[in-house]
Amino acid sequence: MHFFPWFKPLNTPVTDWSGRVVWLVGGSSGIGAATAAALHARGARVVVSARGEVALNALCAAHPGMQALALDVGDAQAVATAAARLTALHGRLDWVVYCAGHYRPMTTASFDLAEHQRHIGVNYVGALHVLAAVLPGLRAQGHGHVSLVSSVAGFRGLPNSLAYGPTKAALTHLAEVLYLDLQPQGIGVSVIHPGFVQTPLTAQNAFEMPALISPEQAAADILRGWEAGAFELHFPRRFTLWMQLLRVLPNRLCFAAVRRVTQASHP
Q: How many CB atoms lie within 10 A of CB 201?
């Protein structure tokens, strides 16, 4: 009997990855590639997708048994075909991870509508394409898990995140609604909020990134969260707990804190 039900995991904890079929979309580099490698090392049957076929093939060559499936998340039909192919090949999909992402720093002084639309297409609409392709099968089999990689940049408005932040906020909201809908059907849902991780995307930042970690460290935190049955995974906590605080601060205090910290980080 659980006297404190709010302490129970929101998802079923994972005790063994052996044989689990994992489709990781956005796995050619950074967090996605590191997470795919970590899952493969634990015995999962990992399929990685991204547009970069050369990078995918190199990743799979380094991890024999991992499968590459080149894919553009902006092509809804291609995503649907890929999901059907993988389901037919493996008989099911146990774990679907959406890690595809696009980022360009932007302020109102450099407002670029095409860049906004690209952020929306990759960071959000691509996730919808994957969900449309996998949800019918997951609901039919009555088990599985969907995980969306968002960002702490989606918690509150931040400088240089004019295009990126809103798409990540949308992903977080989407994950929350998915959980309410799918968890009673036996399907787990989680959302991942990384802080600063050394990736090709963050390499564009011209400011000092606090608590910067490697993709391998990020992957280790992700697997710990999944294995614990968490809904929200955020790391490194020495940074992300402060970002969580911004969510509950009144606007006046939040805006003042963000201005103070970001101005101090620029020489």
A: 17
Q: How many helices (H) and strands (E) does the chain have?
A: 9, 7
Does the annotation mark 98 as catalytic? no
Helix %, strand %, coil % for the chain, to 5?
Answer: 55, 15, 35
First to last CA, the chain: 55
pLDDT class of 264 with cuts at 50, 70, 90: low
Quick one: average pLDDT of 210-239?
Answer: 93
Q: Is 143 helix (H, G, I), strand (E, B) or coil?
A: coil
pLDDT above 90 covers what percent of the chain? 79
Catalytic residue among 103, 124, 164, 179: 164
For the four alpha carbons of 228, 233, 236 and 238, in that order, the dihedral sign comes to negative
Q: What percent of the chain has pLDDT over 70?
A: 94
Q: How is residue 8 written in tokens?
A: 């129970």
Neighbouring CB atoms inside 10 A of 103's CB total 24
Element (H, E) at 119: helix 113-119
Q: What is the pTM (predicted TM-score) of this model?
A: 0.92
Amino acid at 29: S
Beta bridge partners of 187: 144
- Mean pLDDT for 148-158 is 94
List all residues 6 or more positions away from 12 whose beta carbon is below 8 Å from its beta carbon: 188, 229
